[in-house]
Amino acid sequence: MPDARGSSEEDRTPGLRPRRLVDAAQRPGEPPGPGGFAALRRRCGGLLAAAWAAVRPDRRRTTGYIALCSVGALVGTSVVVGSGSAGAVPDLADIGAWLTSSRTGEAAHANGLTGDVDGKVKLPGMGDHPVSISQDGKTVLVLDEKTGKLVRIDPAQLTVEQSARYGAGLQLVSGGRYAYLVDPVKARVQRIDPVRTTPVGAPVDLGRGPLGKAVADPKGTLWVPVPGKGEVVPFPHGRKAPGIEVAGRSGKAATLLMTLADGRPVVTDTKGGTVTLLERTGRGMRFKLPSSVAEEPSGSVLVPSATAGDVVPVLARKSGRMALVNTRTGSLLTASLGSSDHRYGTPQVLGSKVYVPDRSNGTLKVYDTEAAALTEPVEVTGKPGKLSLFVRDGLLWVNDADNATAVVINSSGHVNRVHKYDSRAPSGRTPREKDRTGDGGGRDPARDPLPETPSRPGRDDTQADTDPPARKPAGRERGGDPTPGKKSPPPDDAEDEPAEPRPPGVPQAESGAGSIRVSFAPSSGTKPTGYRLRGAPAGARVVPGKVGPSGPFTFEVRGGTCDKQYRFTVVAEFAGGRTAESGRSGPARPCVAPGRPQQVTEDFPQGGKGIDLKWRAPANAGEGTTYTVTGGGADTDGSRRNTAARLRNLTNFRTYTLTVAARNAAGSGGSTVKQVDLSNPQRTSVHNNVDDGEEVGIRSKPSTTEGTRLGHVPSGQTPALTVLCQTTGTRETHDTHGWQSNKWDRIEWNGRTAYISDLWVYATESEQDSYNPEVWRCR
Predict the structure, then answer these.
(1) How far apart are CA 564 and CA 330, in angstroms?
(2) Between 763 and 685, where is the model more confident?
């Protein structure tokens, strides 16, 4: 029922208002949107054309088909919603992302297939402030990093619904059904309700700051790097778990950078030069970075917080050297962006391309790993600024919060521009003044109306309706550093002088199991007669020995040692004996980090007190692979090269948890955990029980004078027994043979522990009073 002010209960309840799918001015039966069905046909046709451009058949069909199906839903929505205008609240595209604009204090939602802005939300009081937006969980949250104000966006209404204030300088992280605020200075983690934006429980103190940038995986587990302790602390289900040590305790704080690689947590230790997979139970595989990246100052190494696939790009921004670590196969590819004074930002991978933001000119450098060369740069804003990159729904999004323009790029490299200031996009409903104040004269201070015509700085004033070219019209320079606006050199007019030979592109080296793959971009201009590789280690085999002028432009180096890194150049050979040599590749090893040891089995020495382990080497283990066995104080060093270990000075009748791990110069593989019960129950039977009418007694203690009789073995019978161990008790005499022995066997008897004289189990005339060597002594 309406209240006294004329508004219904659900109008006043945030997040529970019914969706308004059409403008209030539209009458039943009227064609949807301006221009009627003709405009609708044009819009649907444009959506389908954009969808086909985005998902045309390539090697990544899964993302494409999902996107195409989503377009069908968008077209259907357009029939109901119309083309949209300010005041309408349509459904947002399923394939899309939220992008912030600090100048207007807005968050704009863009369609990933077309780049069109299909909705905007005013962020009250957040203009000109740095903000972070979290859209990886079930809700959309925005944090004002300057004031600590946290708000939740309602995509159905395009409004800000809940808000709360926390301290400044916090980090907002969400995943799955969980959301967190991390205070890096005070080293605290506060879980929050992602719907109400209120705290959940008390903050958790991690003890030592500053903290590194945290991430939350799709299950909602938070992973917080604590550089001062050299560890990463997980928060499964919102609760703190024991930290995982990822860096050596050298007394100096590590520099730890977290990444979610296809949803799996990965930490890069820039000082230690390692990339480590993390699991809930501890460390997984660890990969060593090449020296060209590991030796860079820690602050100049950049790693993204999330990647769509298994490859983690690690960029040394000063030298332009880059390592691409495949966290599933263990292979590592090194490449170079070319040295320059440009200000590189955090790289991102999409398909076979690596996109690196250049903050000095608002463009993206594009490195194609298949072509082993830089391709044409992508212009985003064309102005200096901080470009942020993230991958969502198989699309790369690039945004500068201080600029009106963003871009979205699909897996084939097609670019759509996003005009975030588009005033025609639907936005949240301006509150009805009489519903909010009761007197018709006020406004809700929490919901600022969007400006009718936001200012558009720079070139966007003249490009509201016409998209600029997607890529900068610069020539492609393989293996070099494409300079925006650089003109091609004039042709050589001297017909009698051959053109100057040009070198191939700087090669990229990719490590493999027992080999290194070297790829390069061919020489431009005059075509050479072939290419040869330099830098292969002595005794190594290079296949092929010479690459022809038409490729394929790849060498494979088989040989070398794992503990050494190798760099390569490619020499182009031209007619007349002329040559041109490329720059040097990044370093690479002829090995990858081994996997985990397989089929771990155990055996025991005579009398126990030790364990003999054997295992099968990982499939990719080379000659340089060593193994380490740890657990129960029975640690061995890492120099073990054979696939076996003998552990001694252990205690019988204890359970040991042993870990077998493999490693080489490229890193350490996953470990295999084996629980071993250091006891040796013997399956045997009663012996020497002559059918003389005398029973064999089963006692509660190793004595005929103490304890009680628990049972007996009838005369002449030889039932099966499980002997646990041997001990000393009263001396007994065999009724028939006259043998004597004070040894008793501890056995299992009807589910209980009992004792039987060894005279009727193992003893013979020659072994009286001696322990059976196959049975361990009881403790």
Answers:
(1) 17
(2) 685
